[in-house]
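This entry is set out below.
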Amino acid sequence: MTPRPHDALFKSAFATPAHAAALLRAVLPAALRDAVAWDRLTAEPASFVDVALADHHGDLLFSAPLQTHETARLFTLLEHQSTADPAMPLRGLRYQLRIWERDHKEQPAPWLPPIFVVVISHADGRWAAPRSLDDMLDPRVLALPGAAELVPRFSLIIEDLAQRSDDELQAQSLAAFPKLALWLLRDGSKPAQILRSFDAWISTMLEAQRAPTGRDDFHTLLNYMFHVIHCTQHDELHAKLDQLGRHTKEIEMTIADYLQEKGRTEGREKGRTEGREEGRIEGREEGREKGRIEGRIAALRHQLLLKFKLPALDPGDETRLLAATPEALDRYLERVLMAHSLAEVFED
């Protein structure tokens, strides 16, 4: 299963510029929202993030010109947070500096493009962490006359999903899939709430299924549900999903039965069996690890065949799959949700 389910769902839903534009239009100040040429929003590479932050970011970077000035452009950094990070303004400033450094090096211009950092928070409770760099600076020094003018000023735009009701999320001008993603992210840390509010989202889920990419989108949504909802509640989730019809059932059984039961249980059982046959502690541990890896390989192979509608992997891809390290398998399992081709999954 996906090692970072929140990141995978967020990026699947909002990496598309049209979906990102709809979300940004809903959260930016009105004057700024109306000035941007949203039909020309462009995804930018976000590989500028420091290696030290690699495990802490799930950012999407976009640029767009203004309606009235084709050469005047701005950036928006769209970040999701499952916790209220007290250092978020400092991280945002670091992101801005990295973008500016790269942009200035690649495209020297008289001015730097403004960068707006938008945080989609699905942390438990209200966002209580600092929202601006001022909130992190010593107020005793900032209170001195002229001091505030000598330090950077920077504020985050926080979209606090914990404060949004189902009705408010459904009322947003978003397509069905990104709406559902926001709902699941909001409740992902307390999965029982997903089951409690499930019925309110049935019509939106049916709408998502009818979209041109509906099957892939719904596969992503169900993958997330089965990942965050505890296995003891899977029977209840199955019962809820039965309301959505036969096509959902096919995806549901593929994810729930194959990936969870075959991938995890078979891997652990095979590891224990091989370990017992070795007859030594070292053999048991080696067998368990081997079984876990083989179970994950089997799960990934099934996902690839299902996603890309293949009867079998070609010999080269099969060899690469069998030779993958545990770290590489983690990357492949995360990429398969968003990849448009096998090459994108296996690319290093």
Remarks:
- The first helix runs from residue 5 to 14.
